[in-house]
Design goal:
The structure is a homodimer of 267-residue chains.
Chain A (H helix, E strand, L loop, with lengths): L32 H15 L7 E2 L2 H8 L3 H13 L3 E4 L3 E4 L14 E3 L11 E11 L2 H4 L9 E11 L2 E11 L8 H6 L4 H9 L5 E10 L2 H7 L6 E10 L5 E9 L4 E7 L1
Helix pairs in contact in A: 1-3, 2-3
Chain A binds a DNA duplex (19 and 19 nucleotides) through helix 3.
Chain lengths: 267, 267
DNA sequence: CAGTGGTCTAGACCACTGG
DNA sequence: CAGTGGTCTAGACCACTGC
């Protein structure tokens, strides 16, 4: 459990004042107390005060630290839990979310086998085709919020399910945060790539955006996926973000959809 | 506002008892009070006690009706709002969600133009190709939870953006609930199809599942979408559900993704 | 101004977990 | 058993809407 003696000497929070009498016409910038608490907890998460998988302080502890009621802390944590930044477990505590847990593995992978669920296939076989350091072209630099020419890591790999190559993907990572990542490191790691990012580089992927298209397989892709050239493939371009909407990964995948499909739930 | 004199004479709710001492080994089937309240509100929504777009009774009214505190009603409504069944508006009330509002129009359509947002295109032009009543084949009956041979409505249409045909879709609807739906009715209706379903047939789509694949355009589809035969297209199969997870629509769409893409946010 | 949803508190009790 | 999150209550006050 977190150090009980290292309580932050938080200033006495006052509910965001409506700014009445200042700069009429601008938004009042009113922020409820629980949002401020949420922001403070978020800061601690970003700063790594509590690591993925570890418990954060109990609601009562946080209430004391921030000098608010338990209910207010609760509402702040509720939102963090809704955003999958944190996981509540009754009777145990609240834990920093991680990609390393079994039941949330491949959290961002929406490809499903046509019959049966994700567990009926067993783990994917991963084959790393290439891993190199290079200078980002504009089309890679821009989504990663880098300047063209900055160092990036490029990784190419194939995922196979039950012996059938199904996913071919190129991954680009900013060179700075991922300094020291090698093909060997990736190949020897058991578990999802995002879990390795957490433990080895302190980078936690929080959310992602995907753009999906249908494309025809070019010669190189067709060979790696063992399909005819021109075969329709699902093109999935993903940008994954850490805290604060900072992009940390660009991924361009080609999915075979003859035995699998991309599943999406609309609410 | 809803009739204040027609308060349901709800039985005095007691928090779901842990069932202690009965059938050991089975789940206690404990249900918190706010979940029971949520279920009751859901029943009223299904029964059409409040129509889409209309306000539901205030939190205080519901608290009195159900003999619980306002906070408990609030938590029930919070969940309904999170599921997009209901919309809260501070100072005004809580309203039954609808597909007819401008800012939630095309709520289930994830296709976006590659540059610019959904509003930069203006409304889609809709062209109805075909609309007929027929008996469901197994591949249509099964997703709709019908028996093969039951009556269904089949609709085929093309959506165009800025003059370019972009979406070709076939829609199947169960014949019972949608009795009386005709091509004319559809063609003359301004606004989203799901809004028409609400106002004309009392069917409100609440959520949907989509399965996405890449396919090659066949001759007929290619002609309608004005692309070469064999062109890769996004195949989007949607099952849309009303309350209680009852499937009410099967939709098979082919999307051109040369100028648009399917956008998905992962959390 | 009254009525609505939104925030915050304080306290009680319950369900679940682990030692 | 103590500690955790989960539920429920009652009351106060705030922000927003419309009359």
């Amino acid at each position: 459990m977190a150090t009980p003696s290292s309580l932050l000497n938080a200033p006495p929070l006052t509910p965001g004042e409506p700014d009445s009498g200042a700069l009429p016409g601008l938004t009042p910038a009113f922020s409820p107390l629980y949002q401020q608490i949420k922001a403070l907890i978020l800061q601690s998460l970003q700063a790594g005060e509590w690591k993925p998988g570890e418990p954060i302080p109990s609601e009562m502890e946080l209430a004391v630290r921030f000098r608010v009621s338990q209910g207010t802390v609760r509402k702040a944590i509720d939102e963090l839990a809704a955003e999958n930044l944190v996981i509540r477990r009754q009777g145990k505590g609240t834990f920093v979310a991680t990609h390393a847990e079994h039941h949330v593995q491949y959290r961002f992978l929406r490809l499903m086998p046509d019959n049966g669920d994700i567990n009926s296939e067993g783990p994917a076989e991963r084959q790393i085709i290439d891993c190199k350091r290079l200078r980002a072209q504009a089309d890679v630099a821009h989504p990663l919020a880098l300047r063209p020419g900055e160092a990036v890591l490029q990784l190419r790999r194939v995922l196979s399910f039950q012996g059938m190559p199904t996913i071919l993907e190129d991954v680009w990572l900013p060179g700075g945060p991922f300094k020291g990542l090698t093909a060997d490191r990736l190949a020897s790691y058991r578990g999802p790539m995002y879990a390795l990012f957490e433990t080895e580089f302190g980078v936690r992927m929080v959310r992602a955006e995907e753009k999906i298209r249908a494309v025809a397989a070019d010669a190189a892709s067709a060979k790696l996926l063992e399909v005819p050239t021109g075969e329709p493939l699902l093109s999935v371009e993903r940008i994954a973000y850490t805290y604060n909407d900072i992009p940390m990964e660009l991924r361009r995948g080609l999915y075979r959809t003859d035995t699998h499909h991309y599943k999406n739930d609309l609410n």
